[in-house]
Batch of 2 targets.
Target 1
Amino acid sequence: MIIVMKPQAPESSVRQIVRIIEENGLEAHLSTGKQVTIIGVVGDKNKLTNKNLELMNDVDRIVPVTETYKQASRKFHPEDSIVKVGSHIIGPGTLTIMAGPCAVETEEQLLSIAHAVKKAGAQFVRGGAYKPRTSPYSFQGLEEDGLRYMAKAKEETGLNTICEVISADAINAAVKYVDMLQVGARNMQNFQLLREVGQSGKPVLLKRGLSATIDEWLNAAEYIIAEGNPNVVLCERGIRTFETATRNTLDLSAVPVIKSKSHLPIIVDPSHATGVRSYVGPLAKAAVACGADGLMIEVHNDPEHALSDGAQSLTFDQFDQLMAEMKDYIQLAGRKL
Amino acid sequence: MIIVMKPQAPESSVRQIVRIIEENGLEAHLSTGKQVTIIGVVGDKNKLTNKNLELMNDVDRIVPVTETYKQASRKFHPEDSIVKVGSHIIGPGTLTIMAGPCAVETEEQLLSIAHAVKKAGAQFVRGGAYKPRTSPYSFQGLEEDGLRYMAKAKEETGLNTICEVISADAINAAVKYVDMLQVGARNMQNFQLLREVGQSGKPVLLKRGLSATIDEWLNAAEYIIAEGNPNVVLCERGIRTFETATRNTLDLSAVPVIKSKSHLPIIVDPSHATGVRSYVGPLAKAAVACGADGLMIEVHNDPEHALSDGAQSLTFDQFDQLMAEMKDYIQLAGRKL
Amino acid sequence: MIIVMKPQAPESSVRQIVRIIEENGLEAHLSTGKQVTIIGVVGDKNKLTNKNLELMNDVDRIVPVTETYKQASRKFHPEDSIVKVGSHIIGPGTLTIMAGPCAVETEEQLLSIAHAVKKAGAQFVRGGAYKPRTSPYSFQGLEEDGLRYMAKAKEETGLNTICEVISADAINAAVKYVDMLQVGARNMQNFQLLREVGQSGKPVLLKRGLSATIDEWLNAAEYIIAEGNPNVVLCERGIRTFETATRNTLDLSAVPVIKSKSHLPIIVDPSHATGVRSYVGPLAKAAVACGADGLMIEVHNDPEHALSDGAQSLTFDQFDQLMAEMKDYIQLAGRKL
Amino acid sequence: MIIVMKPQAPESSVRQIVRIIEENGLEAHLSTGKQVTIIGVVGDKNKLTNKNLELMNDVDRIVPVTETYKQASRKFHPEDSIVKVGSHIIGPGTLTIMAGPCAVETEEQLLSIAHAVKKAGAQFVRGGAYKPRTSPYSFQGLEEDGLRYMAKAKEETGLNTICEVISADAINAAVKYVDMLQVGARNMQNFQLLREVGQSGKPVLLKRGLSATIDEWLNAAEYIIAEGNPNVVLCERGIRTFETATRNTLDLSAVPVIKSKSHLPIIVDPSHATGVRSYVGPLAKAAVACGADGLMIEVHNDPEHALSDGAQSLTFDQFDQLMAEMKDYIQLAGRKL
């Protein structure tokens, strides 16, 4: 922690702060410049939690030096993590494809999609049984029925399954049916939910919040890990900006940034990020090229009649073709499906 | 709903869309320009939910004409709403001041603050018993003990009380102790929580999400009202932008925008918005001047030792002075404390 | 300047950096923590310009301690500045109203508006003769003819005049006709133009860029002052965010922030910020209440036929009424028209 | 153009608007819904420029249907454009690499870098002779001397040359020495400069503004083309968001969006976008994978002593290695260096 004093702060103010630091068992190191004095603080900064040094006389500001997340940080866990879902490994060397409809609509729909994405090479089928929707009057999902269809899809195809959860009740239901839980963008800072998926024991896919910084995202992952569940995969799905040509702005630089700051795997969802079907393919390839560990892609048997997000869903043929086109990119990136 | 066709869309594509619209019991009105044809759709658009017309051949885009929220809209409820909390009225003619610490820390702390803000003219004491914090290692609140101290503060001072809730458990506890529930910015689209506060029967203060549009905010209010609870007050508390001189960017234009689009009362929280104590006063006055129905202001007996957000909290003296300075502004705005 | 080393940086890396700092005539102060070493650098940091210490081995990041602007900073000029335009004073104690059309359209239009805003109490007539427009096919202004009408309006009404300039040619013309030059939001970082208005000798109104931080804005002011022209007034006119209910998001917290960081006067333009006529009045009052030194407001004789920005312009009657309503707010703020 | 009326707008208001539309020689098409009437307007909307229909009684809002740019639009120019610089072709089938220092510092520096990037496969050397800098006290470039060194670099290596211009004077100098002019992000809406580079006859690289929408960016290109200069190449270089882990947020979705809306070539600058050397490589590959026509990459002989942007510059070895790694990606994308 660094304390920057105001210009021409009197020595008495500096001495007072040094005294508080030392009384609390930390060390203070002064750098006295012509205009400004700065105080380097060495020791456990939690001891200063309730001191609010930024309110002391003549303090200009406090600059934090270390991140608050620990278990999610590469600094304390230098090797890449892998996350196992059944026998499937998410992480370096593999490229994980999660594909399926935005929302589970019927058993037939889900099974037909599961078969199709399996054939094209996906290892997971995704599908929403609990849909967080902006309006209370929009379709909110089939809930437990949807989960049951997911289990059926796994049984028939052998695919791993992933479903978003939005409450403790949804978690309790989902753990019985699916292999991996997803925390959606709107719930990235629903800390209660983070603790609960942490306690569930299931691997968790944690989507980035609509306007979450990378630092907040890794702190959200820390909530899950702190409950004893290290099996967290991050998912970049676009952030909110002023641009309206795409639904969100896919932040692919998040991939190398996360690789630098954290050891957790990261996948990319170009479907929700862009909201436009024809942009999904180019950005899927880009995600692989910049080091993503996987992709989440919306596929629908009949996008023109999807109950949710049809405009960004690929048809079976389009998904087949994209998977074929991506093969060389996946290989170039040193990964295997 | 308006459908904008691509330039030079063939007549056959236009006809196909008109057919679908009419088959579903709606009317289609064509405007055929030199470059572009547009189709006005008249009727209940929910009948087209699963048609995804934006995927039809030669459709450029769909422009929605009506908002999805109804009960929160001024269009369907032209008079200003008032929200009663006990005998206190929030809405036109009054100016509601909610003041208190960010977090409840001890019984003594809360009581001393409650007495101070009561004396200065506040009608509510606020205080967090459940604190959503970015890091799992930060202070998370006293939970039910904090709520008990709130009840005690009400008993001693007669002030109304308000507390943030972050889960079904917190709601179940809070309804026993406090007068009004708060949904925080991070939970503005925690739809499960919105439904639960809607069912609680208590008046609700709904903070705007960090990057929520006004349209999303009113849809979140709609979730609460749709559960049969019309007692919703909105709270503008700053949005996330690129600017770093303040913690968030207080969007005071939200006040007249909400007044134009909705009938719900709106209050302003300049403390969380700016994160800097010396900016609170000027923006509190500005909020009153532009038509806000109230203010939420952080006050602490000892900001230098607050466990949370000390830097933005006013001391008792500062709050006293601000209340004195605001009196004329409140009167000018045609309101009463 | 503070250098934060990576965790567990070897002593040799720290020593190398200290050596470079000292070889360049500065001092290095070490704070060696358990995890991280930080190095406080004391002395003229310009001596390190081409050292790029952030690229040295084991450096995590560099934290600047002082701002790059000096003459615009309150730290080096503690008293509020005033800017004189003719005999009119912009700054503490006064409230300056600049009113007029977005674009000068005809001599008759401008004169009729000038008379009307004069009568209502404005001290400046504003009007664009050079209009920066998103599309090359939109109306671009009357150029020198527009300036001539401005001079005529001054002659007839005695009002001060202000006009936006967008190039060296426009400056050369404008200095002959008007009292104050305006640099628009899109040109806030057109550094060539900033130097040229600096050299013009005329007082300058510097609008904040669409996505400029306050730090960048004050650095832009520094460009003007560094040319020997201290007569700079800042103008907050809304920043670009994700919100679409208003054209931009008016950042009124910029008023107290500027007052804290700088000595320059600041005025507010609620017309361009919101783009909606009915939001102008509430935000104008709010700007006065939070300490602005003035307002820029669009007024038009016939908004329904304005060539530019009619939707946000007030009619004469609306402006009269707003001026009447603002009188008490101006007095409360301790200012005079 | 579509006019959306307010709910329950009286027929008289609708009739008045229809009358104005028809009086101006356009057609009005009504869609009268239960709640809302919409009016489709067919014809040349410029005839309504000064009508400001949004101010008419009972109008809710106006929705534009067509873009304002024409010559930059794919709708009116369906085939991909190519831009020739000397004998080099920028556009489909090629992958153009522009590499070099942020700022030209000395003749020796520039020549050594030019030889290195040529050897590694670049076709352009870039280098700033006029540097727009936030602070007036930062290094501002060597100006005409810098341009002379660029000409020397071309003479020695045969590389094409590109330089940013910031004023009419800079353009007049640059056209004598370099092959292509660059308009920087801060000047994207310096419309005077856009017109001047349009008149220069040189090919132009137009960087996206820090917070420019894609629509504004294409309108800026339209300014250049409207002066008779169709040789415009776009350059995505990151937009301003709330995220601070990278200097800007590289918006790679802009590549497929531009390909969809425009026929102009687009290249990507990962160096300025991220500001961090180790993120450049992954994002360069991603740009190629999603369809970019080229890359602009900062390379420096001695990044640790660069006068500007050293932290994001690659060394010769790093650039060599990146070019080697990109070869397969370039081939996969169906392009040639």
Note: The mean pLDDT of chain B is 93.
Target 2
Amino acid sequence: MLKKSRLFTPGPTPLQPAVQEALARPILHHRTDEFRAVFKECTAGLKQFLKTDDEVLILSCSGTGGMEAALVSVLSPGDAMLALVAGNFGERWAAIGRAHGMAVTVLEAEWGDAVPAERVAEALDRDPRIRGVFVQLSESSTGAAHDVEAIARVTRGRKDTVLVVDAISGAGAMRLETAAWGVDVVVVGSQKALALPPGLAFVSMSSRAWAAAERAETPRFYFDLARERKAQAAGESAFTPAISSVVALRAALAFVASMGGVDELVRNAGVLGASTRAAAQALGLPLVAPRAHGDALTALYAPSGVESGAIVKALKAEFASTVAGGQGKLKGQILRIAHLGYYDATDILGLLATLEIVLRRLGHRFDLGAGLAAAEAEYLRLTP
Amino acid sequence: MLKKSRLFTPGPTPLQPAVQEALARPILHHRTDEFRAVFKECTAGLKQFLKTDDEVLILSCSGTGGMEAALVSVLSPGDAMLALVAGNFGERWAAIGRAHGMAVTVLEAEWGDAVPAERVAEALDRDPRIRGVFVQLSESSTGAAHDVEAIARVTRGRKDTVLVVDAISGAGAMRLETAAWGVDVVVVGSQKALALPPGLAFVSMSSRAWAAAERAETPRFYFDLARERKAQAAGESAFTPAISSVVALRAALAFVASMGGVDELVRNAGVLGASTRAAAQALGLPLVAPRAHGDALTALYAPSGVESGAIVKALKAEFASTVAGGQGKLKGQILRIAHLGYYDATDILGLLATLEIVLRRLGHRFDLGAGLAAAEAEYLRLTP
């Protein structure tokens, strides 16, 4: 049987065709007016994407590089910081902080849950020296979402504490009102909702964040955001940018605009996520994050008696579809299906049908078509 | 909502990615050893694709051009010919014959049926002057298939009558044993099972067909297959070929070989077709060709109370999926879903799920998921 390779992983996500076309073009030189114009279009588009008038800087690195750039730019060694850890990526905030000598306090949630804003308020009351709160909008290892709006209500009144949000996989898949909520720093990666290859990170910085950056003494060079701020105001990056990726970013942002803007992309992921959750319930696959789920991805336990790894392998072997398995302590227990980025209903419904076929082959008992019936009904309910 | 443009039409079909890559390469010159090597690889691959040792000529024209080239090469003006007409494309054989002054006898089948081999035998017995029998393997306007194997049993014993098969949409989607069955001329188009853009046609010619070509006096120049035969033996075409398309053809043939050959591509279409027919039955959409269906495509009547044009429009508007409507006398009455070429189970199951959503919106009453349940069950039955 013919099989098309398809990624349903929460990054990298499938490339948008206009992105592919842009990547295939002859390269520009980056110290030219032509490229500066592209760069400026991109930073303007990223502001709309993140709903902020703050500067959004374009860095040539992965999302983790963006996280590190954000952290070293707002803290000094020895500074107290709060890391909200609800999964594998939350642990990364703590690890980056420790690598740079910060005094890291961890607020942990059970994997599948999120850390509530009240616990953040309590922690900040307990230790007023905390200079930064670091959190994921979407925790990709569990599919859980933090209530960044509520957490920002806690942080925005404390003038010496900035809120730094890893929205690498959340931005463009879930609501994020950077300016309206008062989020100080947002980090995004290119290979997520924007449907680009990995290689670019985007960091927005509020005036509070820039004030923190002026004070921050953590040694930094490539990730010196103040240096980038100056260069990028003129449409250049301080160091050689990933030129083709920037040209492709312009195409990606134009695609989002053509859809009706980021809200429509968020709505798309919301409908696909809800349809997937409905199918999962009908098929007896428990959600990993039933109370705190986001829409960037859906993480599911295998039904009893079936190995999740066997499902992942069978989808790949029989249909060439790649879903993600578990990370960290959920390794081997779950599967994760992405909704962020360039997916449409036909993609997700097709995947769910092949998931039914695979589950049937693995001996799971359910009515064939039950998951599709539930997913279609949910789709119809949400798109009247 | 995000929508990806998808073609489910029986030509053009989606491009295979290696074809897209090949088309994007810098162009070669066609009077070079490099291109001659590509050309020869293609003719060798086409022989495997059509299961014959006969020469297969590559023409730069659409499938209709290939049909005309075949007809003018084996008949002289005034010659008697038999056109088997089971739909829109059968009528084309008659029209081309009349345009060149042939004495055309039409054997008609109801649309949705095929002309049986016995009627061909009777017609040839009745009129021994008939020099050519012209037929479609797959009649794309109805989804019906002719029993070319049985028809070839009738023609291959009559030394002055050649069998010319339009396999434009049938080859690579349905069984075709050119040599073993004794088919004299086969015509194929590039934009069908081979997943190339339109622009190339392929014509295989048996020794009986070449003998007819020597006698044939129909005026011809661009479509002079004897001239092409001579040029193509040396890896060149008589006139400037569609160079990039030929380079892409090599990639397309390599893809078919990597799947396990044309039989596997045929099996793929067979499973997708059977799954689609199972879904159609479960959803109450009558087949246009219930007795004579092929696997290149499935043609369906709308359920009672629903306009087929409304289904076609809604699939396009809501999901950006293009299925074909009806042609000729079936215009406005049916929809046609392609299986030939670069489609996999995820594609077809995804389309069927969106078809359910659209049917529900249009007021058709059925159990959501019923079509998917039937399609998945049929898929499981056929791929144990």
Note: Chain A has two domains: 6-12+261-382, 17-259.
